[in-house]
Amino acid sequence: MRHGSDNIHSRIVAWLKIVLPLTALILLSTMFLFSDRIDPSDAVPYSDVDVEQLAREPQMGGAEYSGLTQDGAALTVWARQARPDPDTPGRGQVEAMTARLETASGLVARLAARGGAIDTARGEIELVGAVEINTSDGYRLSSDRVEGRTDASWLKSPGPVSGTGPLGRINAGAMELSPRPDDPEGTHVLVFNGGVKLIYRPKD
To answer: Where is the stretch described as Disordered (predicted)?
Structure first.
């Protein structure tokens, strides 16, 4: 009787030696099969953040400045990112900068640049890098740098400027937008200087 039990036990052990490895192989194959169906886009995205850099150079996204100048113009400045200048209190360096200046007389100037700076302590703004200037009276201009004020409706390109205006194509060494002197209505004048070249294009 015991001999029969030993035979059954031996058969079970021999059978398990075959079945268990096969089962493990099937499970592994199933895991690899389903792993091929995983969509990498379903993974939770993680961004690499340099904590030390953030502590050393604090930044703010979506910065905005708005206010009224002393001569009644509305000035708004937006930036995709801003960071304070550690050496100059009240001054911030910005990226992807845009600005809108609307004078009391209704003239609107829109500007966009790769970057720049805002100094609220000194009342200065600066747009740098591929600056685009569009005015509501028909000027479309480009410059490398434009300066402005937070307390006055004033803009200046100290370097070369080019573009188009109501009279045609314009190239100049500098440009300045400022209030017209002794004008009670507060209108502005756009002055080009420094080797001005105008290609006149009459209207149809």
So the answer is: 150-186
